[in-house]
Amino acid sequence: MKSFCSRLAVLAVLLCAVVPVMAAPKVEHTAKMHWWQKARFGMFITWGLYSVPAGYWDGKPVPGFGEWIMNAAHIGRQRYAQMAKQFDPVKFNATQWVAIAKAAGMKYIVITAKHHEGFCMFHTKATRYNIVDATPWHKDPLALLAKACRRQGVRFCAYYSIMDWHSRDQAAWHPSAVRPVYNPTHLIAGRAAAYTGYVERQLREIIKQYHPGLLWFDGEWIGGWTPARAMQVYHYIRKLDPTVIINDRLCGGVKWADESIFPKVRQPAGNYITPEQHIPPGGLPGYWETCMTINNTWGYKRGDHTYKSVRTLLVNLIHCASGGGNYLLNVGPTGSGTIPKGEVRRLLAMGRWLKTNGAAIYGTHRSPFGQPLTFGYATRKKNKIYLEVTRWPRHGTLSVPTAGLSERIIRAYLLVQPKQDLPLRVSGSKVLVHVPNNAPDAIASVVVLQAAQGQGGK
Ligand code: H79
After folding, report:
1. Is 169 close to ligand 1, i.e. is its CB under 6 Å away?
2. I need a labelling partner for 46 at 20 to 30 A (CA). Which of 212, 223, 290, 299 fits?
3. CB atoms within 10 A of CB 306
4. Predicted confidence (pLDDT) per residue in 226-279, tens digit
5. pTM of the prediction?
6. 67 CB under 6 A from ligand 1?
């Protein structure tokens, strides 16, 4: 929507004005990010009114993401809002949702408090357009999930869209009684302060009522959402709770497409960078998290069974960890309140792998090898280097290019057999590890290299 030049201009503004103000003191930032960085794997939950039509409107399938149906099917505000009366997710079970995340090895959940559609999935006094007041269900899923998270030791977090297709303070891109196109909306002249106030009231409720570990903003590209407005909200949040982590999408103008220029900024506008639907091959410097769909939609679409395989999902998680980033994997619960079986099944399979191989993922740092590895990926924790081998060698020798390593490798073993040394020898700039002929795991087997104590590493 914006040209590269105008984005560069925005970046220049950010560098000069926003960055020094937004950047938290280094030590505090590091401490605040600690739980999140260790977590490595989270669950995105995209749930809202759009889960009711589930990708169909007037009996016809609507192309695009399920949660974009209001925009894609050109549904008028009033007609769309009528769906609240049919939203009765009686099968919703917060304990079970959190248990699924936990069994998948996910350490945090991020649920849509309000998506672009503008419907609030929590009890708010700022509008009646919320799940407690406007649906026959009358319950607050965010309250129930926050409680279940606390009980099960999973971090509760919330997603919040700045773009709001229902808001009277925002005008549709193409307002029309018959064929509205909402995206991108713009703030109506003279209403920006009112909308910012609305956002602040809701964030205050979210922070006070549910104590989220992080706020995941989105939809910040709307017209009139200036860096100054974003800053105001940013400081408002920090005053309420300085420990809340904030992603990089609160500030208008900088989009996820700008990763190529982000590394040049010491501190992005927010606490971490959010690539969407792709994994930067060699990772990124600093804090980052790839969010991704498990099929081809975020919000539930009936009949979308285009699920990624367990192998793809696990390799994605490993790929993120090896680049020093998190993987935020999405589920799209149905209008009746269940997480689709095909999604649950895949998550549980990931959890089984993590149960035996989690040491290679949680609390690790990016690969110490300055290059891609032919056999898979690497992560590290202190003096241990984990090799997640997705292409097991056929002839019993794993060849590790150690040229970039400053340390000597003194021992190797399989993560699942920690007491049994694997023979190793140095050959030129490589360490050759003698491994069994058969891979211990069909998808990714972890070989641990132990480096000599006291050298390098974190
Ligand atoms: O919540 C998920 C998405 O709904 C939201 N971000 C993730 C986390 C998101 N908002 N915008 N985008 C993602 C960019 C994608 C825009 C698209 Fe479209 C929506 C592509 C197809 C539908 C609008 C219509 C832009 C292009 C056509």
Report:
1. no
2. 223
3. 12
4. 888 998 999 999 999 999 999 999 986 544 333 444 444 434 468 999 999 999
5. 0.92
6. yes
Task: Give 435 Cα–ligand 1 centroid separation in angstroms.
Answer: 45
Separation of first and last alpha carbons in the chain: 41
Residue 247 pairs in a beta bridge with 272
Residue 161 Cβ contacting ligand 1 at under 6 Å:
no
Tokens of 419: 């007491």
pLDDT tens, position by position, 146-169: 999 999 999 999 999 999 999 999
Q: Is 298 in the pocket of ligand 1 (CB under 6 A)?
A: yes
Q: Which two tokens stand for residue 27?
A: 């030590």
